[in-house]
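A further point concerns the way the authors explain their paired sequence and structure data. The central task, working out the structure tokens from the amino acid sequence alone, is never made concrete. I therefore recommend that a typical entry be quoted early in the introduction. An entry of this sort, consisting of the sequence and the corresponding backbone structure tokens, reads as follows:
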Amino acid sequence: MEEKNINKEEKNKLEENDTLSDDSKNSSSQSTGDLNKKNSEIDSLKKQCEEYLDGWKRTKADFINYKKDESKRLDSILKFSNETIIKDLLSVLDSFDLAIQSFGKDSKLEKGVYLIRSQMEDVLKKYGLERIIVSVGQQFDPALHEAIAVIESNEPSGTVVDEVERGYMLSGKLIRAARVRVSK
């Protein structure tokens, strides 16, 4: 009987081991399935995080570019904001030139007017005004000169014969072309 009891006990133990073995197999396959599911979920979340991070990086770069563009635009506005008033003052400089031409030689008044004109031109230079230098015999440049007359001359065709009105640039931008007479 004892032998039968031992056999029954062994048989029960074997059955329990088989049951545990089946359960562990089931739980092992379950845990593998859960693990795969969780890994795919983690991968999906990582991919989503990368997409968000890339979007934020692009937005940050766009914002930095926007700030640079706005800074350049503001610099341009500041540089050329006084363009209108400087253009208006150019006619005053022209009037000074006419006054100086009308004076006789060695006139004290001429020297005074010339000093005032020079002083005014220096102030305008401080704000970016540059005179376009034109010399007789120079080749006509339509980007800097405005031909107001074409005349007969000993000079080669297309050269500047005379400067009628001075031209000016403001910080490298043409605000008034030099008015010249050109040879035929």
